[in-house]
Amino acid sequence: MIQSEKGGMAPTMPEYDWMKWFIEGNTSRSLIQAFRDLTCVRIHSQHQLVIATDSVGGIGMKAADAVRVLPEVVGYFALRVPLMEILAIGATPFLVVNTQCQTSDEYSDAILHGMKMLAQEVGMEERLQFNGSTEDNVPTIQTGVGVTVVGIVSDEKFYGGTIRAGQIALVAGLPKSAPTHEIQVDDQEILSIRDLQTLRSHPQVSDILPVGSKGILYEANQLASTSGLSFQLEDSPISFTSSAGPSTCVVFACDEWGAIDVMRQITAPVTRIGTFIALDAKEE
């Protein structure tokens, strides 16, 4: 029981029922759903929150770190992966939560500064848009960072699963990852946030998926699967299985006739890797 405004006891709602009661016109749908690596929470009949998360460990300037990288760079690329996932799906990010496994000091402040540098590129500058915590009880000798990004999107602008049979698959950027590569913020072979925003706003581009540690081929198949299609691989000079670390590239679907225009509008290299086809076409 809970206290009512009039001083009496109001009956409590069963767990999660209050959420269904709060959301207009949504009692027939599940409020929380998974879509690929995203968690989607419906907050209205036509809008939902989209949540993405990622972590970084052993990369930094601590004594036990395996890869030596400045803390600002750690923060920048730690935020990059979940932020790109939010942008790629069509959502607008509004909140960053960082959980750092190191003491609150100049080092953790530098990591947070790196995150804010990237967040500014998408207009996130308000202090209230950042929350987080540090480890101030136990001394640590290795860098560890977790990042969660929350965005909001209307159903109309949710681009996941929108690929049409016949659209081609392209990769923007090249797959790079530590320790094989030294990842630099200004690397022209890495897809920038601005380039991603250009792709997302292009009328001939449908679904976009940032590439992670499992490589380009895995993500291309994920794109096909969530649209009820199959992916037909073509010969390409790009590595299909190399890790793209902090999402240095993305796989996206595009109308073939619009591909040249896309290439002209972004800085990162664009490579064709295949075609999305109907499932019955593959069986034939």
Explained architecture:
It is a single chain. The protein is of the alpha+beta class and 284 residues long. The chain has two domains: 144 residues, 60s Ribosomal Protein L30, Chain: A (2-Layer Sandwich); 116 residues, Phosphoribosyl-aminoimidazole Synthetase, Chain A, domain 2, CATH 3.90.650. 25% of the residues lie in helices and 30% in strands. The protein contains seven helices and 15 strands. It has a six-stranded mixed beta sheet with strand order 3-4-5-10-8-9, with helices on one face. Helix 2 runs parallel beside helix 3 and helix 2 packs parallel to helix 4. The longest helix has 19 residues. The chain is globular and about 60 Å long. The relative contact order is 0.15. The N terminus is likely disordered.
Write the layout of secondary structure elements.
Blueprint: E1 2-3, E2 9-10, H1 17-22, E3 32-35, E4 38-44, E5 47-57, E6 59-60, E7 67-68, H2 71-89, E8 92-100, H3 106-120, E9 130-133, E10 144-154, E11 168-172, H4 193-201, E12 205-210, H5 216-226, E13 229-233, E14 250-254, H6 259-265, E15 270-278, H7 279-283
Parallel strand pairs: 6-7, 8-9
Antiparallel strand pairs: 1-2, 3-4, 4-5, 5-10, 8-10, 11-14, 11-15, 12-14, 13-15
